Amino acid sequence: MLVNSCLEKDFVKAKPEASVFEVIEIMKERGSSCGYVVNSKDELVGMITSSTIYGFITDNLSVDLTIDQMMIPIKEIRYVYPDTGLKNVMDVFTKYDVKYLPVLESAYSFKMVGFVSHKEILKHYMNWQMQIQMENLQEKRAREILNSLNEGLIVVDKDLIIREFNPAAEILTGLKAQDRIGKRSSNISSKPSITEIVMSTGQARYNVETQMQDGRVFLVNYVPMRHNGSDKVTGVIQTFTDMTKIKTLQVQLSKTKEELDKAFALTLPNSKVEYKLKSTPEYRDEYDSDKSTIKITETIEGGGYLHVVNCLKVAADFNEMGLMKLIGINKDTLVEAIIFHDLGKSQPNLKVGDVVTPEEAFEEGIFHAGRSADLADKFYGKDEDVVNIIRYHHHTEEMLPKDFPTHLLPLLRLFKVIDGLSAALTRRSAKVTYKSEGSRLIVFEENKHPKYNRVLELDLYTGRGSEKPLGGKIEDGVN
User: Fold this and answer.
1) What pLDDT does 419 receive?
2) Which domain of life is it from (predicted)?
């Protein structure tokens, strides 16, 4: 902090030939205890204070007294300049025990531009020291935050010189901050780097995937720094994380999905079945419990196909859990029933924003289940067990005909669970988990539809089980 930040420009000044008594009156009117003597060029030639004036006129009572007769001459005066630091000024005040210091224009000019008082300098100096302490504290906190970040952080200035390089950046890049700070950010490409583009345009770039030389993939954000909220870009902040594992997992999941789709396509009897499933839409919606209506939020193109794929995924999970080893659970029958169970389904033509009552808009499941069973039977000649599973998968057990084969009941119960979980996955983006204990299956389902949030326990052989809301009380019953 410099003198010009607390310079007082309004001061008493007088010519050398001025009457002492006239100057005394001016100082009295202005409430000032000192005045400065300047020549015709406003150059400082001397200084007067209340103590020097009264000490002098006590011994010299002549009315003809002039200022130059009793002023402190320039050679005995301490003075400073506008660009003098406050600490140096404080040192002068302390060393020479003075209360006021004139401020001269420069080291090459005696022109007086103002003065500073010990009281004001002390106040500004203390405020300045407190500000420095606060800034140091803020900088310390900022440094602690930078050092604790898991994300790498690099800051470059307008000249692309690296100014910050946090510990996480050292770990992620394998480089040392001491070797990088002060060095220019390198760009091995002939084209402008993203940092340079952000610097010139002032537009941030987020989630930029960057391939490293060692094969790792970083996700990088580039954010421009601006001076005091202005449009002027003074640097760029780069934050980055290593997403190699996530990227690898994404690739693996993508390949897995492709392989699953290909495997599923091979199980389809012909292209007509695939076409029918992919041309049947499903819908995502928001449920209004007060009105018992739903609002369509998304149309799932190829929803029928996705529903069958999700059924097969759940079935695969159940197979790994050992459920397919149970007597009465035939894996081949289950898979064929899954593929054909919605072949006769017909959906209404809805669009995003439509509000409907589900019971009015959608056909009751037993009807399309019957059509699907007929198609599987008459056109594709499927086994009687497959046809029965498809025909009755929307029936409660009380609704089943008396001649329904009892040996199919465990498989029917398992199929209904799979169909319900796939609907939750396909239409409601649900989170589902499950476990089994012999023939006993326990399912946890959580999604945006509170109506469907549940814990289901079911014995596939006896049909006995219980269902409760998540966190609710179990009520025993028979499905």
Assistant:
1) 95
2) Bacteria
Enter the tokens of residue 460. 């596939």
With CA atoms as reference, report the closest residue to 32 among 17, 49, 55, 20: 49
Kindly give the parts of the chain with pLDDT less than 50.
472-479
Helix (H, G, I), strand (E, B) or coil at 262: helix
111, 104 Cβ separation under 8 angstroms: yes
Q: List own/partner pairs for 120-128 with CB under 8 A and 24 or more apart.
A: 120/6, 120/8, 121/6, 121/86, 121/89, 121/90, 121/93, 122/90, 122/93, 124/1, 124/5, 124/6, 124/86, 125/1, 125/86, 125/87, 125/89, 125/90, 128/1, 128/86
Residue closest to 223 by CA, chosen among 241, 204, 247: 204
User: Is the separation of the CB atoms in 392 and 404 below 8 Å?
Assistant: yes
CATH architecture of 3-125: Roll (3.10)
Closest CA to 391 of 364, 411, 414, 366: 366
Amino acid at 276: K
Domain ranges of the chain: 3-125, 149-242, 254-478
What's the pLDDT at 462?
Answer: 95
List pLDDT tens digits, range 139-173. Answer: 777 777 777 888 999 999 999 999 999 999 999 98
Topology classification of domain 149-242: Beta-Lactamase (3.30.450)
pLDDT of residue 262: 62
Query: Can you give the pLDDT at residue 475?
Result: 42
Cβ-Cβ contacts under 8 Å for 352 (sequence gap 6 or more): 296, 297, 298, 299
Helix axes 365-378, 384-391, angle to 10 degrees: 160
pLDDT (0 to 100) of residue 473: 42
Q: Give the pTM.
A: 0.48
